[in-house]
Amino acid sequence: MKYALLGFGISNKEILKYLLKKGESVFVSDQNKLNEIDRKFLIENNVDFEELGHTEKILESDVILVSPGIHFENPLIEKARKLGITIDTEISFCTNEFKKLGWNPIIIAVTGSVGKSTTVSMIHHVLNKHSRSLLAGNIGIPVATLLNGNLRADYLILEVSSFQLYWSKFFKPNISVILNIYPNHLNWHPNMEHYVDSKFKIAKFQEKEDIFIYNPDDPYIIKNLNLVQSKKIPFKKALRLDELPEHLRYKQTLENVAATQTVIETLGFEFRIDYLQDFEKLPHRMEFVAEINGIKFFNDSKATNAIAVIRAIENFDENLHLIMAGIGKREDYSDLVKVLEKHVKTLAVVGPIIEDLKPYLEKENISFFEFKSLGEAVEELFSIAEKGDVIMLSPGGASFDAFKNFEDRGEYFKQIVMQLKEGKS
Questions:
Q1: How far is the first Cα of the chain from the last one, in angstroms, to the nearest whole number?
Q2: What confidence tens digit (pLDDT) does each residue in 327-338 have?
Q3: pTM as predicted
Q4: Contact, 412 vs 374, CB < 8 A?
């Protein structure tokens, strides 16, 4: 069997190691220049490769494993399909290989536009109080790492993105969860229908004995329930905000907890709210950074779309100074602008997202400040904020204009705040 790896990111690197152990023939194709470590590994293992672009050499394979970020209209993929070459990606390839290795965990897969990482982490945390589970997927732990190690458990919890689902050939979790669907990634998906179809692929191959857990208040989900053949279970948002552990008392957490409770109880285990007392909140999600002169700073760098920003803003009254930044995703900002008008004292914008936002802001006569850097924005907002105010980074855009990822952006923001606390500019 000949394999081609289209894209050589962290997941395909792990898959390569696995395929080499099996003695398979592998060709690596990456659109970027490979670093010296990767190049050395490929040469030492006699792996043929190309860089700085993809060529028709990938068409000499039997299977092409696609990195999720590869665009769905890639012309080489279209040619491959016409030639009958199998197209697949990490999540479906790996879960199929697990069975060949004799491992058949109960797979719980979670997708949604916002809240995926927190929810899978919460499910993992509570489930481990009853049994043993492993966590992987879009949360930053490649599923493929489990092919190369000896880690095994009864349950495997996966965070999956619309890109991963789009490219998956046959992905059949025992329990699938869709938290919510909002306009997102429309710079990749051509329209909402395409995006929604990708999300619902999480349940496409499920059978009647499988389970689909969903948000009953989401119109996109309700409209498409006819696509689901498995048993449908809505999650109930029965808890009040003041019932949550203090460190989790943010409005968006209620949805995460509701989904978690439904998954845990569907598996036949007990869910208690005190199980979340020792749950560590993920960084860069409504993360309290510091208080300086009575002004609180929050890092919400993970908020990379409009709805995530809206949900963050709604945790505050009218004392909020907001920083938006990064690269926009061709979203409709009409709802966001209404929330900005109601809750935000000052809006600072950094980066190319201003081009997407400006028409909406100007239409509603919402004033804003534009800055060249995150540092400038923080310092200016700190100079005008008053005691009792909040300064929050909730970007609403991707980070790639200035940072490697949202984590780097959040860490940089925290460093700026800590320098202010030390009295440094």
A1: 59
A2: 998 899 999 999
A3: 0.93
A4: yes
